[in-house]
């Protein structure tokens, strides 16, 4: 398991190698999807009692850090 950010890890054996929170089977993507759907941090913590408030903050910081990179979106050829 490789720590890539505060509280965020990648393990190829867990969740198909997606970034996860502290070795749990909870992905950063899952937390960000809940937040983008309007869930509050408190609601997420109630749904996932093993998480800590700092885990949600780490997910947001990780997602923000990803935006520091340039991306090119290619259109699919039909």
UniProtKB/TrEMBL annotation:
What Gene3D superfamilies does this protein's entry cite?
A: Winged helix-like DNA-binding domain superfamily/Winged helix DNA-binding domain
Q: SUPFAM superfamilies, from UniProt? A: Homeodomain-like
Please give the InterPro entries that the UniProt record associates with this protein. DUF433, Homeodomain-like_sf, WH-like_DNA-bd_sf
- What name goes with this protein? Uncharacterized conserved protein, DUF433 family
Supply the source organism for this entry: Pedobacter suwonensis
């Amino acid at each position: 398991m490789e720590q890539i950010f505060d509280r965020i890890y990648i393990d190829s054996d867990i969740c198909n190698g997606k970034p996860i929170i502290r070795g749990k089977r909870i992905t950063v993507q899952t937390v960000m999807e809940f937040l983008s759907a309007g869930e509050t941090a408190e609601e997420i913590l109630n749904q996932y009692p093993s998480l800590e408030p700092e885990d949600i903050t780490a997910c947001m910081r990780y997602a923000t850090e990803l935006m520091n990179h340039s991306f090119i979106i290619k259109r699919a050829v039909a």
